[in-house]
What we know:
A 5-stranded mixed beta sheet has the order 2-11-10-3-9. A hairpin with a 6-residue loop joins strand 17 (407-409) and strand 18. The two termini are 55 Å apart. The protein is globular, with a radius of gyration of 30 Å. The chain is α+β, with helices and mostly antiparallel strands and 657 residues long.
Amino acid sequence: MDAKDRAAQLRKILDDAGYKYYVLDAPDMDDREYDLLMRELEELEAAHPELVTPDSPTQRVGGKVSEAFAPVTHEAPLESLQDVFSKEELLAFGQRTAEAVEAPEFDVEPKIDGLSVALRYENGVFVQGATRGDGTVGEDVTENLRTIRSLPLRLEDAPEHLVVRGEVYMSKKVFRELNAERERDEKPLFANPRNAAAGSLRQLDPKIAAERRLDVIVFNIQAVTGRSFEKHSETLEYLKSLRFRTVPHAEFSTVEECWSRIQAIGSDRDVFDFDIDGAVIKVNSLADRALLGSTAKAPRWAVAFKYPPEKKETRVTDIVIQVGRTGVLTPKAILEPVRLAGTTVTNATLHNQDFIAERDIRVGDTVLVQKAGEIIPEILSVDLSKRPENSVPWEFPTVCPECGSPVTRDEGGAAIRCQGAECPAQRLRHIVHFASRSGMDIEGLGTAVAQMLIDNGLIRSAGDIYSLRAQDVAALPGLGKKSAENLLSAIEGSKSNGLVKLLSALGIPQVGQAAAKVLARRYRTMEALENATEEELTQTEDIGPVTAHYIRTWLDSDQSRHLLELLRQAGVRMEHDEDTSDARFAGKTFVLTGALSRYTRDEAGEIIERLGGKTASSVSKKTSYVLAGENAGSKLTRAQSLGVPVITEDEFEKMIK
């Protein structure tokens, strides 16, 4: 079999496997076999670039980073729906419809709470996808849509031209996992799956969109050549035969029958892997739809029933504190079990100290609860008439319940955070940050390896990293002797990094790379910094009273002293190197844009800062130079408009030499 035929065969095998896994949820190929076949196809296409096709599974994450999304005018408008909020309003819709067309039939579907898109196929190949926008003009998000595994890139026996409408969403499971990951990385949490899906689909880098594991369900044919249908339900069956994942639906003869289905969808909403914000009732006959037409805002042949937020009373039996991976103390109300929006609710987040104080929530209170966005249980109010006579206000702890370290409130924020350098709840985060590029830069000690080391009892804090033994690391799953040797070599090498990297690695609140450099230049040794008073710290350049207090509090902690002692015993260097500032860089601000061929942006930034300069993320009149690589975008344009000097990578090389 020649390369062309083998590539076609591999594409077909991988497409079939992907359809069964992502659409039918019935995989028939194990991950290893799939990965091996994918690698074979990648190698074939690399050796024969002419064999690469737009519908190849290797192209799902191959698009370039975009500067912006191009506008797309929809071939058929993506209309919005009129909302109804009661059975009476639904019956009125049915009455209006029956007066306009004879004996209408209806189709009922769950209304997926996601982002509406139009998908265009030419000769069976996916060529373009766009967001709804204003219904007439949307944004081209083709490359991001390619990353969605449940979206077919090629259709078998497809019409010459096909445009379908679908809803991009993030499953509840992926949403929970994404927010857990963002919490660990100290990033803002997404409020709900819809916001997460919308933000993911509009990422300029398709690789980020791919990491978000989005899904898509189609629910309408917008345009098609060479095919005709009588009913909407027939179009859904046809789309299903083309291997699209289609919206679940049911047909009914009357609006009364539709009402029963709407109620069932509402009570069983937890069975769907996607969020819903209602149910859609559509006239099934396409001919009747044409007769009914549309208003200026919405079709007359469909409405969306919106479920009212379900609210119920229950009792707070306890308030407990959870310590997150970032050290934030989050109060949680333990509730008497109550059935709400399809699931049994036993607890609700209380967010922070201010939330509890504003509502005066106490143990024993009777409270009104609902699910925010149909996902997260929340307390709306307290029924003071039912408050027990012996009730007392709840007080927030002053020390961490996990490790006993002092807690402090974030400056300008509501979060209260544990300051323990060896707090068990923050163990993974502390170790990963310590080993990160901005910290001690220990290559190979990422989240997965750190978690294995913790789970196997090899380390309990960052101080234990330097006592690891090669034979223990080599015994971990997926590592082995060579990986263990490489990791221990990187750990050993990090001992000589010096005070700047160490201070940045320790995770002292408000002490990042910039503050670490300032402190290292001022105090020169860790011992001198440990002996500095809070007042002395405030006299240091760029160190304000709040940061000084955080530093002193961290240094005074028993856990911090223990960690520093472990690091000293291991031979970690705690002195600052002599400055290597260059007069040409001192006081200068650089902005980096585009792709550099000799360095990563981080590496170039480190060189600039080592020579006494600074880096910034945006161009202004105060910018000294813009270092522009290939495909430099809006930052280059702004620099030229402001008259800011632009240097090439070659010119930068001459400067640093």
